[in-house]
Every structure is written in C-alpha cells, then in structure tokens.
Amino acid sequence: MQRQTRTLLGTAATAVVLVGGLVAYCATRDTSVYEAHVFGYQVVGDGRQLTLFVDTAPCDKIIEVHVDEKASSVSVVVHARQNQSDAPECFTLVGTTQDVTVQLKDPMGDRALIDIAGDPVPRLSH
C-alpha cells in the first residue's frame, strides 16, 4: 500500500511540474507575433533581391523574415507583430499590404518561392 501511495504521489508531482511548465510557457509566449501571408513577389536587380508582398492588418509591423535557399526553391516566412495601439486608424476591417525586400545568396532564377504552408507564391510582373 505504501509503495502504491509513493507511486501515485510521484505521478501527481510529475503532472504538476508539467502543467506548471506549460502554463509558464504560455504566459511568457508573445501571442502578438504571427506568420503573415506572402501573396506575391518580384525579382529585383541582379536576381538576388526579392520584394515580398505581405498581407497584414493596419498598424501591424513586419519584424523578421526567414529565408531558406535550396537548389530548386526558396522558402520564406514573414513574422509580423499585431498592433498594440489604440489609434482609430488601426481598427478597420480593411487589411493592408506591406512590402519587404530580402537578399538572396544566389540569383532566384527558375526556383519556386514557397510560403510557410509549403505552397508556391506567385511571381508578379512589374
């Protein structure tokens, strides 16, 4: 009986530690950052620069862009931070487009641009 009690107490203590860790993680995680949708791009200059066109909400800011180059594709992930302002112009039902330019190591060439979901992003003409 004493052995079962110790096992149950040990299991309960482990569960408390796991739940506590999860709560602490969720409480410190910045939920205002999201992965913004890249809906198109243009190749600029010598082919090593891309201008990405990104859907965001008004007043949101693009905070970082991750680029992963492979032989047949270039993957991009754009992170934006949700508006933290009380300004009336930030609260509309109309989204906005922001553009951000990224530098590639090698020219884009015929490679596909891939978004976070693994879907191809259309190349837009000038």
Descriptive key words:
1 helix; 6-stranded mixed beta sheet; 6 strands; alpha+beta; single chain; 126 residues
Commentary on this structure:
- The chain has 126 residues and is an alpha+beta fold.
- The chain has 2 domains: 1-30; 33-114, no CATH class.
- The chain is 21% helix and 39% strand.
- The protein is built from 1 helix and 6 strands, in the order αββββββ.
- The protein has one helix spanning 2-28, and strands spanning 33-44, 49-56, 61-69, 73-81, 96-103, 112-114.
- Strands 1, 2, 3, 4, 5 and 6 form a 6-stranded mixed sheet that branches.
- A hairpin with a 3-residue loop joins strand 3 and strand 4.
- It is flat and about 65 Å long.
- The N and C termini lie far apart (77 Å).
- 12% of the residues are buried.
- Residues 15-29 have low confidence and may be disordered.
Strands, helices and their partners?
Elements: H1 2-28, E1 33-44, E2 49-56, E3 61-69, E4 73-81, E5 96-103, E6 112-114
Parallel strand pairs: 4-6
Antiparallel strand pairs: 1-2, 1-4, 2-5, 3-4
